[in-house]
Amino acid sequence: MAIDTRGNPHFRHPAPATLGRVHASTIRIDTTGVVLGAAIVAVVAVAMVPWRWDRWRRLVLGRVLTTVLAVAMVVAACGLGVNAAGSFYPTLGSLIGTSPNPGEGTVADAGPDGRDLGRALSTVTDRAASGHGSMLHLTVTGRRTGITRDVDVYLPVGYTAPEYRGFRFPVIEWIPHFPGEPRQVTTLYGLPDLLDRKIASRQMPPTVVIVPDYNGEPRMTHDSECVDAVGGTANDTYLSADIRSWANRTLAVRTDREGWALTGWSSGGYCALNLAVRHPQWFSVAVSMSGYDTAAKDAQTGDLFRGREDIRHANDVSAALREHPAPLRLLATADEASGEEKAALDRLRAAAAPPVELTTWVFPAAGHNLGAVQAHLPQILDWLNAQLGNPIATDTPAPPNAVSNSIGPWSLPDSGAQGGLRGTDAAL
Fold first, then answer.
1. Helices (H), 14-150
2. Are residues 136 and 78 in the same domain?
């Protein structure tokens, strides 16, 4: 997406780290060309070992260096192949975890906590005139947790229109996948353009989309899984209480639970389900695209729960659905070829009971990759359209059968994370 600064003379992205004049965030490492090139280099490196074996002036040193180089190139080529198949690190920037250009894909910068939103809205209005919504970059510091992270916000056509003055818009909080950067949802998923088309054709109501950085820095070896880690970072609280509190203060968004949905792919899908099930007082809808129902424990995540079975259990989506049912509308999808994803669907089906409404889809085998995400996004947005309400006037009374105010929090065990939610504390 082109950077558009029209109407906003104060527009300024954060200064990006670069490799020469090239942003690391623009260097794709998951393409066929990159993988093929690495494979060719690996073959050449391997061929060099026997070809030069007895020809080096310093025989031992030459043999050692060419053998080490060959092994390194083979490992790199295999790693790039696996990475491309799973779309784990689409760019060099995501691999090295530097966020070299956090504003990539956005059209204006709204500053810390959206303080410059008023100036950025002129860009939003200009783009709306040509039928385009606007993705803005900013940072949000959580009132409870003190965490500061990058956040992208999509404001739809209509957000600044006179006919919507005094209205509040429904919200989708979209959780990126690991290694988790907001710009991936914009530049790799292509979400803003798809939203523009859906909203223009009245297949979706004008909707605000909030894309937080769920992981923070560094990313390469750290996956937070969106949980309040025991004695660690209160990621859950930041993504639920802090982001919602900030949005309610700063944006023209609905404050009722029926106006808020969570969505994500892969690890972001687990995050979406887990946050919704843990906080039904704030969210009514969640979508997990090829996600799972329990937090991972591997080299990238480490042991988030440090042996605390009560915290692990409280972050098990299937267990929470059984023990704390609430009026939630959930969609979970899986790839036909993924036994793990389908097993998660089976556990969710076994656990879900009224008032939970669970929909599950199994897509034809396409792999766990960005191509599958892009192919399935239109159907995901169609499902969300059926669940989301419309923008509502600020003074609209709640309908007589509204359940929003009757859904209370369930008691969460104390993880010890600074600022983390615990017990039935649901203060924003």
1. 32-51, 59-86, 92-96, 117-128
2. no
